[in-house]
Design a protein that fits this description.
By secondary structure, the protein is an alpha/beta fold. About 50% of the residues lie in helices and about 15% in strands. It is built from 12 helices and 8 strands. The protein is elongated, with a radius of gyration of 21 Å. The mean pLDDT is about 95. Bound molecules: NADP nicotinamide-adenine-dinucleotide phosphate. NADP nicotinamide-adenine-dinucleotide phosphate (NAP) binds next to helix 1 and helix 4.
Length: about 260
């Protein structure tokens, strides 16, 4: 794994816990060093997983790691990095959504090799994307095999991917709407809920299996001429429903977070 023997995390919250579990699922997993806050999370990870060490301080994490990952919230970054013993040879990866690489470099000097990464909590079970920019070899090696690795070409692209990540709640709202309609049609809630989750999960899985096929082609391939899927899709297209998704993304991009 690109010579990675030790990976440290500053900030052991929800996302770090998921990534640590994902990394530990690899057969060639490195030793992992955790910062001591949040105590219940870091202590549980160190207790449950082999070669995961809960360090006494953030400084110990940095001193004992070759790659350091920042898992704190954007507004916590500066305080968490204050006075830490970064070296020139460190690779530093930040999960903080709005922190630009130029600012990150300033905070971790004399380390200069930095990148941003946006994983999802589902990385714990080997599902979902991780976007990185720039393609720092250590970060690429770390996330390859535990997630669908996507390398952004610019920091602006990184921000655009961040906007797209803002549609996960909308996805669940769509599932909820379908489920509620089924319940109103008299179907028991448990059956409606399982049906909807399983149907959309199967469709999503099929999309990954056929990843070289354009998504518009997959939409066409999943409708029979004159059938239910064609009719529903046409009604929604005519209503401008899909344009609203682009509009919502445009609104998120106007917030200009971290590009
Ligand atoms: N959650 C996601 O799905 C997701 C997805 C993409 C990106 N992100 C990004 O990932 C980062 C972490 O998100 P999260 O959801 O894991 O947040 P979180 O659960 O709030 O975790 C933040 C962690 O940082 C710790 N912390 C705060 N100040 C610290 C300091 N000075 N030194 C050491 N540790 C400190 C907190 O400890 P205490 O509990 O003791 O305060 C907590 O363990 C954020 O920047 C977020 O933008 C998250």
């Amino acid at each position: 794994m690109h010579g990675l023997t030790s990976v440290g995390f500053i900030g052991t919250g929800a996302l770090t816990a998921a990534i640590v579990r994902g990394i530990r699922s690899r057969s060639d997993a490195p030793t992992i060093h955790l910062s001591p806050r949040s105590e219940p999370v870091s202590a549980a990870l160190a207790r449950e997983l082999p070669n995961v060490v809960r360090e006494a301080s953030n400084a110990d994490v940095v001193a004992n790691s070759t790659i350091v990952i920042l898992g704190v919230r954007p507004q916590q970054v500066a305080a968490a990095l204050q006075g830490l013993p970064f070296r020139r040879d460190h690779a530093v990866v930040s999960f903080a959504a709005t922190l630009r690489c130029s600012e990150l470099s300033r905070l971790v000097a004399p380390a200069t090799r930095v990148c941003r990464a946006t994983p999802m909590a589902t990385t714990a079970s080997g599902r979902g994307p991780v976007v990185v920019w720039p393609a720092l070899p250590e970060a690429v090696a770390l996330f390859e095999g535990i997630a669908d690795l996507v390398v952004a070409e610019t920091e602006a692209q990184m921000a655009a991917f961040g906007c797209a990540s803002g549609l996960v709640a909308t996805f669940f709202e769509i599932e909820h709407s379908v489920c509620m309609w089924l319940v109103q049609a008299g179907i028991p809630p448990d059956a409606a809920s399982l049906y909807v989750r399983s149907m959309f999960a199967a469709a999503a899985h099929s999309g990954l299996e056929h990843r070289s096929a354009p998504l518009a082609e997959l939409a066409a391939a999943h409708q029979t001429p004159g059938g239910l899927n064609e009719r529903a899709r046409r009604l929604l297209l005519e209503a401008g429903w899909f344009d609203r998704i682009g509009g919502a993304l445009q609104d998120l991009s106007s917030l200009r977070l971290g590009d």
